[in-house]
Write a structure and sequence with these properties.
binds tryptophan, mainly alpha, 75% helix, globular, single chain, Hydantoin permease, 0% strand, 18 helices
Length: 443
């Protein structure tokens, strides 16, 4: 099959931002922030985005567009086949992320259902917490939603790059954005909400521990879809006229904005309603249904919100499945259809275990973690940062500087504003920072 490109500039940004913006911003970021010291975490997170995320985002888009192939093929086609290992690790990482991500995405479908059947009305915080605990530990119901979600993802990936991915992202991302703004306003105006603002924006520096820094780094990689070749794959669909520097800046900026908005929508409400900010993965699912009860027309808002959250998750799972599909298709010469279906079935099996590990199988732990947490932690706090390190070293030290410049400037047609900064970050700061964060953990 001939490779198709994203159709327009807006389409590129919508697709890449669609990959980045997802459950990572609205589900994972707030709960990590709540558990890891609030404002202090936010501050370290922003530093990670600037020093690690942004340069690696550009590096991945650059490698992808230069290589015009899947995650492993890209390294071969730019003449550095040994660096293919980044791609293999990336494909593995895609499977592992999908394994738990689709479980959470399934929860969002359950919550659409609960919103439609008006199950949030008149419930106290304790009731909502109990309802979540009951649902997420059940053996069958979450698995059905998870499998449905994997199926939908597979369907869109098969509809092809332009039709499926681009069109849906272009319309729905802006709507989600507006809805988040409304939620922010409501949350901020709840009595007692200001305490949440202080929690977010008055960092307590004594809370910055090695664990907080590692979590913030992991969250930055996770949220920006970096370190495992997702943006390499999407970069390969970007046409040669696009300004990659701008695209990297815009996608990184949008993703961070959505994460911060999600935090502003959630934390004032958390404090106003007396919810524990360190609640964990259920934080969003307990807090926001509660907020909807305090909004006129909350019934409709709740349905709209959980539908958009599902769709934000979908544009992310699409990108993860696309990494695997493009790889199997180009490297193993499987038809795209076959590749996507085989990958989806494997993911569903992982998803079954991830889901059961929260209920039926919760006594079986690996290194003290449920299978669900293991997938989450091993990818975000280990595989992705290692992948990011390798990508930074590759761009900073191995890839010929002239070729990099030519690719970024579209063969000299664009004036590069930040090339020197990026090159410096990729060569020294980004790799050293990742290493330092790992070493800090070990000591
Ligand atoms: N970034 C997405 C989110 O925030 C999830 C995601 C999509 C992802 N593709 C990825 C995470 C690749 C890591 C790597 O929800």
């Amino acid at each position: 099959m001939a490779r198709t490109n994203f159709g327009s500039k807006l389409g590129i940004i919508a697709a890449a931002a669609g990959s980045a913006v997802g459950l990572g911003n609205i589900w994972r970021f707030p709960y990590e922030l709540g558990q890891q010291g609030g404002g202090a975490f936010l501050l370290v997170y922003i530093l990670c985005v600037l020093l690690l995320g942004l340069p690696i985002m550009l590096a991945e888009l650059l490698i992808g567009r230069m290589g015009q192939h899947n995650v492993t093929g890209a390294f071969r086609s730019i003449g550095h086949p040994r660096w293919r290992f980044i791609g293999y690790a990336g494909v593995l990482c895609s499977f592992l992320i999908m394994g738990f991500y689709c479980v959470v995405a399934g929860w969002t479908i359950e919550y659409i259902w609960q919103a439609i059947t008006n199950q949030f009305a008149d419930k106290s915080t304790a009731d909502l917490a109990a309802a979540f605990a009951d649902f997420s530990t059940r053996p069958i119901r979450p698995i059905i939603w998870m499998v449905l979600f994997v199926g939908i993802t597979c369907y869109v990936v098969l509809a092809g790059v332009q039709n499926g991915i681009e069109k849906s992202a272009k319309i729905l991302m802006p709507v989600l954005f507006v809805l988040l703004l409304v939620l922010c306003l409501r949350s901020l105006t709840l009595p007692g909400g200001l305490e949440g603002v202080a929690f977010l924006f008055q960092p307590d520096f004594s809370k910055i521990t090695p664990e907080v820094v590692l979590s913030a780094m992991g969250q930055a990689f996770f949220s920006l879809s970096l370190g495992m070749g997702c943006m390499i794959t999407y970069g390969s669909y970007i046409d040669k006229k696009n300004n990659l520097e701008h695209t990297a800046l815009q996608v990184t900026g949008l993703d961070t904005l959505v994460a911060v908005l999600a935090a502003i929508a959630i934390f004032p409400a958390v404090f106003a309603l007396g919810i524990n900010p360190a609640q964990g993965p259920e934080l969003v699912f307990i807090t926001l249904p509660n907020v909807f009860a305090h909004i006129p027309g909350g019934y409709i808002w709740a349905i709209a919100f959980f539908m958009l959250l599902s769709i934000a998750a979908l544009t992310s799972t699409i990108s993860l499945l696309e990494v695997i599909t493009a790889f199997m298709n180009e490297e193993w010469k499987l038809p795209r259809r076959k590749a996507a279906i085989i990958a989806s079935c494997t993911i569903a099996v992982l998803g079954v275990f991830a889901s059961l590990s929260l209920g039926l199988l919760k006594d079986y732990t690996i290194a003290g973690m449920s299978f669900f947490d293991l997938l989450d932690n091993f990818t975000a706090k280990f595989l992705m940062p290692i992948g990011g390190l390798a990508i930074a070293v590759f761009c900073g030290w191995v890839l010929d500087r002239k070729r990099m410049e030519a690719e970024l400037s579209n063969e000299g047609k664009l004036k590069l504003k930040y090339l020197k900064v990026f090159a410096f970050l990729l060569k020294y700061i980004t790799p050293l920072a990742i290493l330092a964060i790992f070493i800090d953990q070990l000591m």
